[in-house]
């Protein structure tokens, strides 16, 4: 195989390779794009580490900074990474609590991809001496992935990471 063909979802992409890309400073889920998963017969994780996530406190409008970890097991679609970058950037002036941001991101990716499994973890830098690290997940109902989501939720963060690196 010499690579993905134009007919395998590339023709539908509008952002990748576009030199005139504009950045939305307001929440913009419509920028997310997906392509066909060429390996739907196999379970595998796709993981994104996004260390430059920013949003605003909805009350004070002070900036919040986080590393956003997004992991999913695709079904028929995968997210195009440039569109994901632009989507995450669109939170820059979005005012929401940390917990809301991770759930909004997960919900938008579920709507776009209908993945078998997904989890989103926001590791926010401390403000006022407290860091907030919300984590959420989802497994497709009625499948082994729903069981996996329940298991991972019940066993999440049994061994908290060291936080001396923030």
Description of the molecule:
Pathway: tRNA modification; tRNA-queuosine biosynthesis. Catalyzes the NADPH-dependent reduction of 7-cyano-7-deazaguanine (preQ0) to 7-aminomethyl-7-deazaguanine (preQ1). With 166 residues, this protein is of the alpha+beta class. The chain has a single domain (27-153), classed as GTP Cyclohydrolase I, domain 2, CATH 3.30.1130. It has helices at residues 81-89, 98-113, 144-154, and strands at 34-36, 46-56, 63-73, 77-79, 117-124, 135-139. The protein has a 4-stranded antiparallel beta sheet with strand order 2-3-5-6, with helices on both faces. Strand 2 (46-56) and strand 3 form a beta hairpin. The relative contact order is 0.16.
> What is the distance, rounded to the nearest whole angstrom, between the alpha carbons of the first and last residues?
43 Å
How do the strands line up in the largest sheet? 2-3-5-6
Mean pLDDT: 88
Structural class: alpha+beta
Task: Based on the coordinates given, report the CATH architecture.
Answer: 2-Layer Sandwich
Task: Please identify the top-level CATH class.
Answer: Alpha Beta
Strand % is 15-25%
Shape: flat
The H/E string reads: EEEEHHEEH
* Gyration radius, in Å: 17 Å
Tell me the total number of β-strands: 6
Tally of helical runs: 3
Offer a few descriptive terms:
3 helices, 25% strand, flat, four-stranded antiparallel beta sheet, 166 residues, alpha+beta
């Amino acid at each position: 195989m010499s690579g993905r063909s134009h007919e395998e979802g590339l023709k539908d992409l509008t952002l990748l390779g576009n030199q005139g890309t504009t950045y939305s400073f307001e929440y913009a889920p419509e920028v997310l794009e997906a392509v066909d998963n060429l390996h739907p017969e196999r379970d595998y994780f796709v993981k994104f580490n996004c260390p430059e996530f920013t949003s605003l406190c909805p009350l004070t409008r002070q900036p919040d900074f986080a590393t956003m970890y997004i992991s999913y097991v695709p079904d028929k679609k995968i997210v195009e990474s440039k569109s994901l970058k632009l989507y995450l950037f669109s939170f820059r002036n979005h005012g929401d609590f940390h917990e809301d941001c991770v759930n909004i991101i997960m919900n938008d990716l579920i709507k776009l991809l209908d993945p078998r499994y997904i989890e989103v973890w926001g590791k926010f830098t401390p403000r006022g001496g407290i860091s907030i690290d919300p984590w959420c997940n989802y497994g497709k109902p009625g499948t082994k992935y729903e069981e996996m989501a329940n298991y991972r939720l019940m066993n999440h963060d049994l061994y908290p990471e060291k936080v001396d690196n923030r």
